[in-house]
Amino acid sequence: MEQMRTDNDGSSKIVFKELSYEIVGCLYDVFNELGYGYHEKHYERALMKCFETKDVKYKNQVPYKLFFKDRFIGYYYLDFLVENKIILEIKQGNYFSRTNIVQANAYLKKTGLKLAILANFTSKGIRFLRLLNIY
After folding, report:
1. Residue 6's pLDDT band (boundaries 50, 70, 90)?
2. Residue 32, CA distances (Å) to 28, 53, 106, 123 in order
3. How far apart are CA 134 and CA 116, in angstroms?
4. Residue 82 pairs with which residues in a beta bridge?
5. Which of 22, 72, 96, 117 is the most buried (most CB within 10 A)?
6. Is 94 strand, coil or helix?
7. Phi, then psi, of 114 in degrees rounded to 5
8. CATH (one of 3.40.1350, 3.30.420, 3.20.20, 1.20.5) for 4-132
9. Residue 131, strand partner residues
10. Which residues contact 70 (CB under 8 A, 6 or more apart)?
11. Coil, helix or strand at residue 111
12. Contact status, residue 67 vs residue 95, Cβ threshold 8 Å
């Protein structure tokens, strides 16, 4: 299911459509070659190679500071920040957990970015969700 936004003129557009297709294409390329059952770090490394091959700019394991009452309490890390526009979080398993969805939404809130893609490498293929920033 694609998330859309409505512009002032009433037209609807998919947020970061072309870049999303590039990312999803890489997810499928990695799954088609590796298959199911590897650790997330192996899928992560394969995705980095795919992004490099397709000249998609990315940052990996991007740190963000977390604060409580204006005091630093630690870091959290984005799996990928693609083209400084889309957060990509990858998981290995057959379903999307509520925790994974909440985590991706928290990352959107903190970064102020418009879109996150949550991707699962499952026993039956790639599943992904596009999550729009509602904050």
Report:
1. very low
2. 6, 16, 30, 12
3. 11
4. 58, 86
5. 117
6. coil
7. -85, -30
8. 3.40.1350
9. 116
10. none
11. helix
12. no
Tokens 């969805």 belong to residue: 101
Q: Which residue do the tokens 């630093």 mark?
A: 72
Q: Are strands 58-68 and 115-122 parallel, antiparallel or unpaired?
A: unpaired
- DSSP conformation class of 65: E
pLDDT digit string, tens, across residues 40-92: 999 999 999 999 999 999 999 999 998 899 999 999 899 999 999 999 999 99
Instruction: Say which range, 1-10, 96-105, 111-120, has the weakest mean pLDDT.
Output: 1-10
Tokens of 32: 């088609």
Q: What is the DSSP letter of 36?
A: S
Amino acid at position 82, single letter: V
Strands in the chain per DSSP E: 4-6, 12-14, 58-68, 71-82, 86-92, 115-122, 125-132
Per-residue pLDDT tens digits for 88-109: 999 998 889 999 999 999 999 9
Bridge partners of residue 90, in order along the sequence: 119
